[in-house]
Structures are given as C-alpha cells and as structure tokens.
Amino acid sequence: MTSLVIMISMNLLLQVSFFIVVSSSNKYAEYLGGNATFSGIVIGIPTAFAGLSLIPLTKYDKGMYKMPLHVSCCFAILGHVAYALAFRANFLYLILIGRCLNGVAFSMFMYCKRYCTDPRIVGIRRRTTLASWLVICQGMGMSLGPFLGGVLYKVGFSNSIFNGYTSPGWIMAGIYAGFWVLVTKYFEDIPQPPTIMELQSARDSSHPIVSLEVIGEDTEASPHYPSASTAHLASPIDESFRAQLSLITWSQWGVISCMCWFAMLCFFILGSWEANLPVFGAAAENFHWSPFAAGNFIALGGITCFPFLLFNLLAARRIQDRKLLAFGTIIGLAGLIIFLSILRTGKVNYGSLFACWWTVALGFNLATTVTLSLLSKQLPPEWNGRTSMAIQYSNYTGRVTGAIWGGSGVSVGMLNFVGLEIAMVGIGAVLFTTLWRDLKTKTG
After folding, report:
1. Of the ranges 165-169, 214-218, 339-343, which one carries the lowest mean pLDDT score?
2. CB 367 within 8 A of CB 258
3. Which of 400, 8, 441 is nearest to 220 (CA)?
4. Backbone Cα Rg of the chain
5. pLDDT, tens digit, for every residue of 51-104?
6. Alpha carbon distance 352, 368 (integer Å)
C-alpha cells in the first residue's frame, strides 16, 4: 500500500510540475524575449521529451518501477533548477532546456498508469478505480499548479535569483529532493518474475510457486485470457510478438485505436485551454488578465470540478467504462459548443467563459479515466506494457500539440481554435458509436 501511495503521490507532483508554469510562462518568455507561441512550446515540449525518454527507460526497467522513479526525481530537480536559472542567465532557451529535462521526469506518467493496471498486482475490478485516483491527482494538479504559479508571481520576491518567475522552479526542486528521499526509503518494487531456470527447478522439485499479492479482492484476469502468472507457468518462454498479435481480433484493434484517439483528444483539448486561457485573458479587452488572475481562473475551474471527480471515484465501481467515456465527452463537447456560440455573438464575460472552462475541464478529465483501464480489461495481461505505452504516447501527443495550439489560439483566431477541437470530438464520436458494442467491459 505504501508503494501505491508513493506512485499516486508522484503522479500528483508531476501534474503540479506540469501546470505550475502555465500562469506565468507567457510573461517569463516575454521578459526574456519570447512570445506567446514560444510560451506554448515551453508548456508542451516536455511531453515530447517524455515520449523519447520512454524508449531507453522501457528497455532497461525490466518491468519494474524503482529505477524509473529515481530517474524521474533526478531529472525533475535538474529541470526545475535550469528553469529557475534562466532569469539570472538572461537566456531564453534555458527555460526550454529546463522544461525538456522535466520532460524526462514526465515519462513517469506512463509508469503510474501501468502500475495501476498491472495484472501482477491489480485485480481487474480495481483498475478503473485506481485510474480515477490518477484523474483526481490530475484535477488537483490542474488547480494547485496554476494557483501556486500565480500566487508566487503576485508575491514577486524582488530578487534576481528567487522571484515571481523563478520561485516555482526552486520550490518544486526542493519538494522533489525531499520526495526522492521518501522514495529511496519506503518504495518497494514488485517482486521479480521467476526466471526460466527457477521455473524449471521448481517443476523438477515439485515445489509450489508462490503467487504475487494482488490489490483488490477480484484477481480475475482479462476475459478469454489466462492470468500473467499462469501464462508464465504454462510456458516459461514467452510467445513471439507475432504469435501474440494473431490473438488480437479486428474489433479489439478498433477498440485500441478508439482509446488512443480519445487519450490524445482529451489531453489536446485540456492542454490547449490551459495554454490559451492566460494568452486569451491578457489579450481580451474586457479582461486584461495578469498571470495571477489567469492562474486563479484556471485553478477555480479545477477546484470546482474536484467534488465531481471524487464522485467519479465511487461511480467507477458501478458504471461501465464506455458509459463514463460517453458522459465525459458529451459534457466536454457541450462546453466547446457554448464557447463557440459566445465567441460568435461577442458575449464573452467572466461568467460565460468560466462555465465553458468548467464543463470542458470536467468532461475531458472524466473521459481520461477509462482509456487505459478499458484496454487492460480487454487485452491479454502480457499486453499491459504495450497498451500503457500506446495510451501514454497518445497523451503526450495531445499535450504537446495542444499546448502549441493553445498558445497560438489568439493569432489563428479563436473561432478556428475551438472549431478544430469540435471537429476532433466529432471524429471520436464516429469511432465511439461504431464500436459501442465492442467497448463493453466489466465495471470496477
């Protein structure tokens, strides 16, 4: 249980790290000679480097989690320190370098998701519930990060080292240093799977193989497939990748494509709004927001979503994943359509904009709950690592492209900005309705 708490806490810290620069990055970039588009790149670029860093990490992690945790803590500290030093060095691209280093730390997002759906330790009826905890952390990070960034900018700290632009970096670096100590002392990795020689020796001596403890009462594996431990006992040498591919039906490939699209879509829209709101609020004649005001606005949306995300934690145990996905997407789409209408009529004010942001944040945060858990229930346990990678790369793609799109929203036109997002939801709706029967899974 301690290890599970550490993984969920790490997810929260990473979310705060991602969002804490949102409210002030535009002003920070402008101070050092950048613009709003560069600010969008600063916000979104870490996810590109997270995706690249997963290639060597997954090669050497041996299916474990402790090594990626150490790597993540190390690069999070380095990235935040570099981000903070950019002011003193008066070097614009040091902000980007710092965020790229943070990107290596953000590779841990995939491991957090994989841990909560790992068939070696998590039963099938607990995966959506644990995924809901990750989404709660996502909502908390979306609220706490911009709020802290805005408050630190407001306080200012008129110092060339520790000021409104740099203080988020220094504070997060200190928090990660303390958390790294806790990881080293308390995190216990899952037991290493028995080697081929150990399995052979166990069969020869007729000694029983001790099964791994599983979180949750129901340890049933995905339907129509043996559990991970049973599969390894029956065949010490894993089947070839081609043989495993032959087990996947066309309908399951459709489900994989649908979930990857929604994983990308949700983070594209959330990332674009988070990057766009400070820029749009500063440019709009009736707002003229400062980073503090923008941070408060973004945080207020996340805070008011929080009770509904907690309710989702309870609902996930009783409602099918496909229904949660449909519900969240419909709410988010309603927010986009309302925003489009108030842009066209010129009735954008604080209340109407907040209503749009709240529905978008709530809807697409809810929809992200089920993308990985649904796949983990339909595919063989051996595919958990691959599906985790596919969903996380989709998340990263949405994050980086969404942040750049959000930073460019004012320059390309806000109607074009929201119109593209509605069109992307429409593509998802076609996939969703076509595969509705195939998306059915067990609850929990």
Report:
1. 214-218
2. no
3. 441
4. 22
5. 899 999 999 988 899 999 999 999 999 999 999 999 999 999 999 999 999 999
6. 25
Q: 439: which 2 tokens?
A: 């998306």
Q: How many angstroms separate the CA atoms of 257 and 242, rounded?
A: 19
Pairwise CA distance, residues 343 & 44, whole Å? 25
Q: Which two tokens stand for residue 264?
A: 């990308």
CA distance 144 to 140: 6
- With beta carbons less than 8 A apart as the criterion, state whether 309 and 135 touch: yes
CB under 8 A, 24+ apart: contacts of 187-194: 187/2, 187/3, 187/6, 187/65, 187/66, 187/69, 188/2, 188/3, 189/3, 189/64, 189/65, 189/66, 190/64, 190/65, 190/118, 190/120, 190/121, 192/62, 192/64, 193/63, 193/120, 193/232, 194/232
Query: What angle is formed at CA 325 by the lines to CA 323 and CA 328, rounded to 5 degrees?
Result: 105
On whether the CB atoms of residues 379 and 137 are closer than 8 A, the answer is: no
Cα–Cα distance for residue pair 150/165, rounded to 1 Å: 10
Rounded to the nearest angstrom, the gap between the alpha carbon of residue 175 and the centroid of all alpha carbons in its chain is 20
- With beta carbons less than 8 A apart as the criterion, state whether 368 and 135 touch: yes
Dump pLDDT digits (tens) for 377-387: 888 777 878 88
* pTM across the whole model: 0.77
Of 409, 403, 390, which Cα lies nearest the Cα of 340?
409
CA distance 369 to 141: 15
The three-point CA angle 274-17-284 to 5° equals 25
pLDDT at 203: 54
- For residue 215, the SS3 value is strand
Contact 354, 287 (CB under 8 A): no
Distances (CA, A) of 318 to 113, 125, 314, 438, 444: 21, 10, 8, 19, 6
**DSSP β-bridge partners for residue 215:** 122
Residue 6 clears pLDDT 90, i.e. is over it: yes
